[in-house]
Amino acid sequence: xxxxxxxxxxxxxxxxxxxxxxxxxxxxxxxxxxxxxxxxxxxxxxxxxxxxxxxxxxxxxxxxxxxxxxxxxxxxxxxxxxxxxxxxxxxxxxxxxxxxxxxxxxxxxxxxxxxxxxxxxxxxxxxxxxxxxxxxxxxxxxxxxxxxxxxxxxxxxxxxxxxxxxxxxxxxxxxxxxxxxxxxxxxx
Length: 188
Known about the structure:
Layout: H1 5-23, H2 28-35, H3 39-46, H4 54-64, E1 90-91, E2 96-102, E3 112-127, E4 135-142, E5 145-149, E6 152-156, E7 161-165, E8 170-174, E9 179-186
Antiparallel strand pairs: 1-2, 2-3, 3-8, 3-9, 4-7, 4-9, 5-6, 5-8
């Protein structure tokens, strides 16, 4: 049985755009606003029901901060994949005084996500419960961070790691000044 190459391209494009949107925690409405592409068109493209123009694809890749040239590529080739510091996508609109840079690949969403968290003075990232069994692993690189999971709280300094359930309300806050940490989320 031969696959229709045109259908294969649509499927890869749809999957890549959908994964990029979900990896950034964006709704269809948010992507529409950021890209200037209508919500219905974004939805049709993600379902593989529409062939977007190059201009539409460009607007979507810019809004989602994904590589336009690599959008239709399949699985990565063996070797070293490098994402330069300035090219790593950043999640906006979450928390107060916190920058969340995505370090994990889009295909890891929901399984094993890695984030670089940078907190301004009094920065705060509060989260509602993730899926049952989800755990977070937080390692402080700089500064002092208070982590709360449910009713439990701990203060961490540079080099400290906290592992805690994330399937209940939880929060991460810069305790006294700016701070930086790596966050690994498992089974979200």
